Amino acid sequence: MTTLTTTTSPPPTSPSAPSSPRVTGTLRVTGTLGERYREILTPEALDFLTLLHDRFVARRHELLMDRQQRRQDVADGIDPDFRAATRPVRDDPSWRVAGSTGAPGLEDRRVEITGPTDPKMTINALNSGAKVWLADAEDASSPTWRNVVEGQLALHDAIRGTLTHTVDVPDGEPKEYRLRSTTLTDLPTIVFRPRGWHLIEKHMRYVDRAGVSVSASASLVDFGLYLFHNAHELVARGRGPYFYLPKLEGYREARLWNDVFVLAQEYLGLPQGTIRATVLIETLPAAFEMEEILHELRDHCAGLNAGRWDYLFSVIKAFRTRGDSYVLPDRAQVTMTAPFMRAYTELLVATCHKRGAHAIGGMSAFIPDRRRPDVTERAFEQVRSDKRREATDGFDGTWVAHPDLIEVARGEFDAVLGDAPNQVSRLRDDVEVGQHELLDIGSARRAGATVTAAGLRSNVSVGVRYLESWLRGVGAAAIDHLMEDAATAEISRSQVWQWIASGTRTENGVPITRDRVEALLAEIVDDLPRTPGNRIDDAANVFRAVALAEDFPTFLTIGAYSQFLVGSEVDQP
Ligand SMILES: CC(=O)SCCNC(=O)CCNC(=O)[C@H](O)C(C)(C)COP(=O)(O)OP(=O)(O)OC[C@H]1O[C@@H](n2cnc3c(N)ncnc32)[C@H](O)[C@@H]1OP(=O)(O)O
Ligand SMILES: O=CC(=O)O
Ligand SMILES: [Mg+2]
């Protein structure tokens, strides 16, 4: 095992060497070191990560404990609601967020492409013609050590215009990938999404001054490495260090991020406010604290994003034991026009524009297939109507999963925005959304949507196939012509869990039981083609653990990461 540890020397790559904060703990890298890994895991970068851990691991831990308490409250029948204690923040009309002011490349975000940070996807995304690229270490990424470090290397090289990639083509010339420009301002603005607060990075161990040893925080590792290596370079090249912040559950978690930013900027000699963050509102508790989240991050906040897939997952997770009236129909039947989903997006746009923040729409999961015009036409139609609704509702931009969808989404936003870079000035004072609208979960089934045998089969099948991909280190996959990632897979497995726990019957009256799902799982696994190296049996075991366990695991990726990714072959460089 190669071990890298922190040093105490000042970072030579940082134009303004850290004057003050000294590190008190140590950070040890235990992952195998592949080619060029030392360019990312420099002693100076590790010092910076150590400082972030010295200051923030204890608070991260406390906030994760708070999440547990809130989950218990909802299970006990206490519904989430807007907080009385923070009413003054909501009632104070005087404050605004920094938005895109002084953040070049964030004024016009009408189409954002998302995707993982392997070299090929990085080049394809940056050549795609989108306004922004969400470089994803989260939902679209399987957090193998290799993906974590090599993703940082790809970003490092892309920002400097040196990234290239070659793909061998059987019986043909290798395919060469290059950036279409080495000038960063000619390319989509990069917004990096680190992993959420709930995740750990097991290839780094942090020991505090008292000798307590824990795995590193995945958020601090991803954020810290990206910022340390690229912040000054991005600014010098006409952009900035921009982040998407995933899976926050409340304003105190936003405050933690803000404090991380302040310390990081001070340490690296960046003017305060250089960092800009767009926060995903993708958990039910966060929907009740959008304004407070903006307020906490106001000097660093560019906007909010409606992360619909994790939001749905969060809704299921919150109410999973509250009985039949909280049961959602088949995943495919819960669309963005379901009243409770519409309430959430309407509130998001209204909140953002009231505070000068961009409202960014979410991901339609339909993806095109270049070999299947019928599939592509259906994807275009679905994406077109989704983006039309978002643009008309006041969103300033949106996400697409695939380069071939950029034109479709752009068309809908161009039709509403014209030459204006955004519509932040369009206030949505007409929106009246309260607790009732956000929690009207039963509305989807009351409107006629149902739980079907096909929906159950699809959840099991998609869940297993996605996990099989994730276990091979591929965190986003096209399955049945839909984009699947960690968030959509969470919905599949948690619906199965909830349906069993709630004694739900499919529309033809057959109860969904553990035995029925076991039988279905066996049938699906038997039918899947076996190829050398595939991980179908492991995927089935993970699915069983997260969909059929007595106690609901809070995230499907946590156990599977420790059990299957860390130290496995797929994890090695
Ligand atoms: C819930 C959420 O958080 S959503 C955000 C997280 N999820 C994501 O980011 C998913 C992003 N999308 C993807 O990863 C991909 O589109 C997939 C996996 C769904 C499908 O990818 P593929 O099977 O490769 O699609 P397909 O074969 O049609 O791709 C055609 C070309 O477009 C490229 N491409 C496809 N999607 C993307 C993308 N998002 N970014 C960059 N390039 C892309 C492919 O690399 C391929 O390039 P090539 O011709 O050089 O080989
Ligand atoms: O991250 C986005 C989501 O929909 O989840
Ligand atoms: Mg998400």
Largest sheet strand order: 1-2-8-9
Fraction of helical residues:
40-55%
Beta-strand residue fraction: 5-15%
Annotated CATH topology of the largest domain: TIM Barrel
Number of domains: 2
Q: Structural class per helix/strand content?
A: alpha/beta
Could you describe the 3D structure shown?
The protein is an alpha/beta fold. It has two domains: 43-438, TIM Barrel; 451-571, Malate Synthase G, Chain: A, Domain 4 (Up-down Bundle). Helices cover 44% and strands 12% of the residues. It has 20 helices and 16 strands. It has helices at residues 37-40, 43-75, 87-91, 119-126, 145-159, 218-236, 251-268, 284-287, 290-296, 308-319, 339-354, 373-393, 406-417, 435-438, 443-446, 453-471, 486-501, 514-527, 536-547, 556-565; strands at residues 4-5, 26-29, 111-116, 132-136, 164-167, 175-178, 189-193, 200-207, 213-217, 242-245, 276-281, 301-306, 358-360, 398-400, 477-479, 482-484. Strands 1-2-8-9 form a four-stranded antiparallel β-sheet. Strand 8 and strand 9 (213-217) form a beta hairpin. Helix 2 packs across helix 6. The longest helix has 33 residues, at 43-75. The protein is globular. It binds acetyl coenzyme *A (ACO), ligand LL5AMS7Z and magnesium ion (MG). Magnesium ion binds at residues 139, 246, 280, 282, 307, 309-310, 487. Residues 139, 280, 282, 307-310, 362-363, 487 line the site of the ligand O=CC(=O)O. It catalyses: glyoxylate + acetyl-CoA + H2O = (S)-malate + CoA + H(+). Residues 83-94 have a biased composition (Basic and acidic residues). Residues 28-85 form the Malate synthase N-terminal domain.
